[in-house]
Design a protein that fits this description.
Layout lengths: L14 E4 L3 H11 L1 E7 L6 E6 L2 E6 L5 H15 L3 E10 L9 E9 L3 H5 L11 H13 L5 E7 L11 H6 L4 E3 L2 H11 L2 E11 L8 H20 L1
Parallel strand pairs: 1-4, 1-5, 5-9, 6-7, 7-8
Antiparallel strand pairs: 2-3, 3-4, 5-8, 6-9
Helix pairs in contact: 2-6, 4-7
Bound molecules: hypoxanthine.
Length: 234
């Protein structure tokens, strides 16, 4: 076991899905995987391994924000040999043309976080998705008749910002949506030479102030999950 994950060596698959919410990990394991088995519940961060279409896949919560995700993803890459990590989450739209329930593939992640400033001593690393996962996810979604938006997202350290208009600067430069984990996921994938992708559904809009109803969330969620699982096993 690692410090924060109780799995034994070999209990975590090479491909893993990473929702923020640990109960979402449980829901995914119970509704999308065959024969899911719980491998860790340290701090109630649940992790399961099962199969999808006969191929081994794990799913584990990361908690919210860069510091929490960073702990789990470091251990998954370093101690458990995870090779493909796909974050599945929600984001707030910052472009008017992005609608609630839209599927977003994060090609790159800008950030206001201090994590990479600290890590790179003030230099500016560009956290980028795995091209092969991005291409596969795009093709898998298209094949199902869904058209994902692909582009830069903003990975913020603050859900409650001091300046409620702060997102507008990122929007001016074409960023699609705000979330809180991808810059660190992509940076760690680069460090450990692994593959990572973030797939998001738009849960709310900072532009129009709309948000999703539970039923709408469910449909969008299923599209995101099928895209992520098909990508994870290919
Ligand atoms: N900000 C940050 N993360 C989010 C948001 C948001 O508005 N919506 C969903 N995840």
């Amino acid at each position: 076991m690692s410090i924060h994950i109780a799995a034994k060596p070999g209990e975590i698959a090479e491909a893993i899905l990473l929702p923020g919410d640990p109960l979402r990990a449980k829901f995914i394991a119970e509704n999308f995987l065959e024969n899911p088995r719980l491998y860790s519940e340290v701090r109630n961060i649940l992790g399961y391994t099962g199969t999808y279409r006969g191929k081994r896949v794990s799913v584990q919560g990361t908690g919210m924000g860069i510091p929490s995700l960073s702990i789990y993803v470091n251990e998954l890459f370093r101690d458990y040999g995870v090779r493909r990590a796909i974050r599945v989450g929600t984001a707030g739209a910052i472009q008017e043309e992005l609608k609630i329930r839209d599927l977003v593939l994060a090609m790159s992640a800008s950030t206001d976080s201090g994590a990479n400033s600290f890590r790179f001593g003030g230099r500016h690393f560009a956290p980028t998705a795995s091209f092969s996962l991005l291409k596969t996810a795009y093709e898998k979604a298209l094949a199902k008749g869904w058209l994902p938006k692909v582009g830069n997202v903003v990975c913020s350290d603050m859900f409650y910002t001091e300046d409620p208009e702060e997102w507008k600067l990122w929007a001016k430069f074409g960023a699609l949506a705000v979330e809180m984990e991808s810059a660190e996921l992509y940076t760690l994938a680069a460090k450990y030479r692994r593959e990572a992708l973030t797939i998001l559904t738009i849960s709310d809009s900072l532009v129009t102030h709309e948000s999703t109803s539970p039923e709408e969330r469910q449909t969008a969620f299923t599209q995101m999950m099928e895209t992520a699982l098909e990508t994870a096993i290919s």
